[in-house]
Specification:
48% of the residues lie in helices and 15% in strands. By secondary structure, it is of the alpha/beta class. The chain has a four-stranded parallel sheet, sandwiched between helices.
Length: 215
């Protein structure tokens, strides 16, 4: 998929679920529970055991249905391994200019982390397609995102940290490009208890909020 199509799909879905898991099978199960709820974008973090193999397997099994990205990518070497495995976008909690440069070289969407205005602008000037504002909740949540967007309307922002069903609409109103959602959507405890439908139902609820805000 071309980078412009990747960005368009992420904007359309409005969510980037942050998948953390203790095993490859758990990661795959959660991915399919999200897909059942209509969420077809997924960020597999490098903290998942065998994360690159998980990305490779997901890309092979569901790459035609699910847009798979890699998260918690801290360096260009890791980014390259994820891209070769099939990741179509790269996300980081921090700013590493060399990682941005590598992604630009291969025309892969990249969302580095930034928190302060200086970090956000530095990431954008280095070529970020959007900036992951993390941890957004520690700075005031949606009100902080709105404050960032006021002088920087040209920079796409993905708030992560503190995004929940209760706050999602506020983040979207504040100008979020998409929402980085962790444990409130990717409920590992529910999955381990054999209740994957909890994740599926949460996915549907998030998509309803996105649809309500953007229609």
């Amino acid at each position: 998929m071309h980078k412009s199509e990747v960005l368009q799909k992420i904007r359309q879905v409005g969510l980037v679920p942050v998948l953390r898991a203790d095993s490859e099978e758990e990661a795959l199960g959660i991915a399919y529970a999200l897909e059942a709820g209509g969420v077809t974008v997924l960020e597999v973090t490098m903290t998942v055991p065998g994360a690159v193999d998980v990305i490779r397997r997901l890309a092979k099994e569901a790459g035609d249905r699910i847009l798979i990205g890699a998260g918690t990518v801290l360096d260009p070497e890791s980014a390259r391994a994820c891209m070769l495995a099939g990741a179509e976008f790269i996300v980081s909690p921090a700013l590493n200019v060399r990682t941005i440069e590598l992604c630009r070289r291969y025309n892969v969407a990249v969302f580095p982390g930034g928190l302060t205005p200086t970090e956000v602008v530095t990431a954008w000037e280095a070529g970020a397609d959007a900036v992951k504002v993390f941890p957004c909740s520690a700075m005031g949540g949606a009100s902080y995102l709105k404050a960032l967007k006021a002088p920087l309307p040209q920079i796409e922002l993905i708030p992560t940290g503190g995004v929940s069903l209760a706050t999602a609409a506020d983040f979207l109103k504040a100008g979020a490009f998409a929402l980085g959602v962790g444990g409130d959507l990717v409920d590992n405890k529910a999955f381990r208890a054999g209740k994957s439908e909890v994740i599926t139902e949460s996915a549907r609820k998030y998509l309803e909020i996105v649809a309500t805000h953007r229609n």
